[in-house]
Amino acid sequence: xxxxxxxxxxxxxxxxLHAEELYRESRNDVYAYLITLGLAPPLAxxxxxxVFLRYYVTRQRGETVENPRAWIFRVAHNLGLNVRARQSRxxxxxxxxxxxLTDESADPERGxxxxxxxxxxxxxxxxxxxxxxxxxxxxxxxxxxxxxAEAIGISSSSVSEFLKRAVTKLRKAANE
Amino acid sequence: xxxxxxxHSDPEHLLRYADQELSSFDADGVAGHLxxxxxxxxxxxxxxxxxxxxxxxxxxxxxxxVPPPPAQWKDLDFRTVVTLSPPPVRTSYRWAAAAxxxxxxxSVYFLSRPGRVDAAELLSRASVAGGAVTPPEKRIQxxxxxRTLVRPARMTTVESPQDSAVLRAxxxxxxxxxxxxxxxxxxxxxxxxLPQKEDRVRIVTSVGDRIGxxxxxxxxxxxxxxxxxxxxxxxxxxxxxxxxxxxxxxxxVEITEALPFEKPERVPGLPSSRKxxxxxxxAAEELRVLAALARIGADVGEPIEWERSSDRITITxxxxxxxxxxxxxxxxxxLPGVELRFVEPGNVTLPSGDAQRAAxxxxxxxxxxxxxxxPEEARAIVDRLLDQSxxxxxxxxxxxxxxxxxxxxxxxxxxxxxxxxxxxxxxRHLQAVETSRALLRKDLAVLLSAEANEAPAHPxxxxxxxxxxxxxxxxxxxxxxxxxxxxNTVSTxxxxxxxxxxxxxxxxxxxALATR
Lengths: 176, 516
Known about the structure:
The structure holds two protein chains of two kinds.
Chain A: H1 12-36, H2 41-60, H3 68-86, H4 94-103, H5 108-112, H6 115-127, H7 130-140, H8 145-152, H9 156-174
Helix pairs in contact in A: 1-2, 1-3, 2-3, 3-8, 6-9, 7-8, 7-9, 8-9
Chain B: H1 2-6, H2 11-18, H3 24-36, H4 38-65, H5 94-99, H6 119-128, E1 139-144, E2 147-152, H7 165-173, H8 184-192, E3 198-207, E4 210-220, E5 226-234, E6 240-247, E7 251-257, H9 283-295, E8 304-308, E9 313-318, H10 322-332, E10 338-343, H11 353-358, H12 363-372, H13 375-405, H14 408-411, H15 416-448, H16 463-486, H17 494-514
Parallel strand pairs in B: 9-10
Antiparallel strand pairs in B: 1-2, 1-7, 3-4, 4-5, 5-6, 6-7, 8-9
Helix pairs in contact in B: 2-4, 3-4, 6-8, 9-15, 12-13, 13-15, 13-16, 15-17, 16-17
């Protein structure tokens, strides 16, 4: 066995710097996404770190990644589902959101921007399907439809369909 | 597209327009329509308001509600990922690249953080894992300097291969098991008796020509005649793949598993009574036959069976027409050890799928016809659903058969080329099932007026483990669809939803493997 490092592509140190930069920029977003998938915080944090190490390994092997941010969400999604299946229970994010909504009910700023409307929309968001929520989340993180599709393993047209249905429900809630 | 733009834009188009997801041609069409249509402009405002509502929620409610990470973020530890050989050869199969990660399946949190890696724990787990017991037929290769010795991995008698006395003495002097040197248990036993030692455990992503995730344990000591031992284990089942023992005075012994049909280098003095014939037909030959069948599309959906014995692979085609027989002869004729047989079918006649479908008119189909107002469209949807279900069931059968013929323990000892062939074969089946996924999902959404329920991926650690689960889920889905759509059963669609969710879960298990 040889211990010699053979890297095809960018220099090793450049790759590490790049991976570290991506890690610093996106780790909290990936962590948040894993929490919304139902992972317990310690597992979500470990999994997030694992995602970035895998990114580094992938690049180290000489593979190109067109959109690193989309790539890490795709890997986070798959890894997250796998981890979720192994953990003893799903940790819903919604409990925390509910608590926060209650805590903020007296927020004057919220009152100024039509608190009731927001609450109706937020309730409607809570009622969306898991896939609709995932599509909205990843869209809000800046992923294109094609990238969302790759991340969660569905077709691009399904992403469009899920988003349309979600938006229809949110519009309905907002206009009630 | 331009025709639809003359009518009002539908919400999906407006959403895609707002998200700049339309082609420039379509976007120009929508923009042109919006200029003349106040209703659609109003609609667009509402779509934008709705996505704006979500974005506000995302940034101001959801993200702040996420509990903070329980620990400070650590720097990425790149020392845990080291490439020891050149990158793998890329193939044109999408899943082949993904399959490089098949060995990565292990409890994600065990050893996932460098700080948690512990040699004693790893060796302890490896000593009781599935791969811990050395099978009697396993052979190992010991290399030291220019000499190579092939012997049983576990010596069951006091006899040793001739000319190995010096090597044996080296092991015994170091108190390292000569009888079973290539095992985590022996490594752990040696390590535990050292009064002074230093350990290092790291994750490596390739060993020799093998790609995947492996754990490498290194123990160094100033005690005794063995100064350093390195053991590399697969991450999935902790099987040893490489061991390097560095004795003092520059004697290094490298141990690997000897491939089952590999002709060993002759070692002077070693008995020459190997029983394995050079022409033996093995897994590699069988894979070549399967690859040849796949190239002409004869590996699935045709009444062709194969059987491997020690000296031949018999291919039997039942009721194959003459022109197809020629294809098979051309594809397989040049392969060694292949016997091709064609037989005529018996008198048993099975009802065709179409005949079964015509037998009933299910309530769900009637509802769909009424809802769509176009019976022919409803029938087309039902036919597509049943066809896709048939097709994915066939693939799931083929995949499962492959998994049973080449279980994980067989796959890991295949030569690199055969492993690549195997990966390409099972990936091809899976890709076909993936195609069915999109089509089934689309038509089921119309049939049931609902999106498919999601379910967590079924956990499995290798594609061979995922395959039977997918087969069972495919059988259930196919039976449920046939019963609900082509029979007289009254169904509300819930059964179909559940069966489809289970099927998706089984299919997603491969995705979970693929990203590792």
